[in-house]
């Protein structure tokens, strides 16, 4: 299992950002993809998940209305888009999928992280 994320992003407040996570080594549509972020000096914060099989999503209440998860099954790539960015959104964003043996279905493998910086 390998999850490869897109590169660092710098955005102004109020803008949007879209981070990608390309999956390989397993059947993309058979496992949920979770998204987690970690702000400087803070712990991990779960944002929600997507079922790539049918696009079904579940969002943490804090992010509802401002975050959108999508998945492209043709490229086995999941995306998170965050709009109306503010400085508090500065964080490293991670995707998480099944473990290497696929027995662990959640948070078993992680992308390398994408730094998103919101600053004017």
Commentary on this structure:
This protein has 120 residues and is mostly beta strands. It has strands at 2-5, 9-11, 17-24, 33-38, 44-51, 56-59, 67-72, 77-82, 91-97, 109-110, 114-118. Strands 2, 4, 5, 6, 9, 10 and 11 form a seven-stranded mixed beta sheet that branches. The protein has a four-stranded antiparallel beta sheet with strand order 1-3-8-7, with no helix packed on it.
Task: Give a brief outline of the structure.
The chain has strands at residues 2-5, 9-11, 17-24, 33-38, 44-51, 56-59, 67-72, 77-82, 91-97, 109-110, 114-118. The strands form two sheets. Strands 2, 4, 5, 6, 9, 10 and 11 form a seven-stranded mixed beta sheet that branches. Strands 1-3-8-7 form a four-stranded antiparallel beta sheet, with no helix packed on it.
Question: Could you outline the blueprint of secondary structure elements for this entry?
Answer:
Layout: E1 2-5, E2 9-11, E3 17-24, E4 33-38, E5 44-51, E6 56-59, E7 67-72, E8 77-82, E9 91-97, E10 109-110, E11 114-118
Parallel strand pairs: 2-11
Antiparallel strand pairs: 1-3, 3-8, 4-5, 4-9, 5-6, 7-8, 9-10, 9-11
What is the approximate shape? globular
How much beta, percentage-wise? Answer: over 45%
Separation, N- and C-terminal Cα atoms: 37 Å
The percent range for helix content is under 10%
Biggest β-sheet strands, sense, barrel: 7 strands, mixed
Average pLDDT taken over every residue? 96
- Oligomeric description of these chains: single chain
- Total number of strands: 11
Sketch the topology as an H/E string, one letter per element. EEEEEEEEEEE
Unreliable spans: none
> How many helical elements?
0
How big is the Rg? 14 Å
| Main structural class | mainly beta
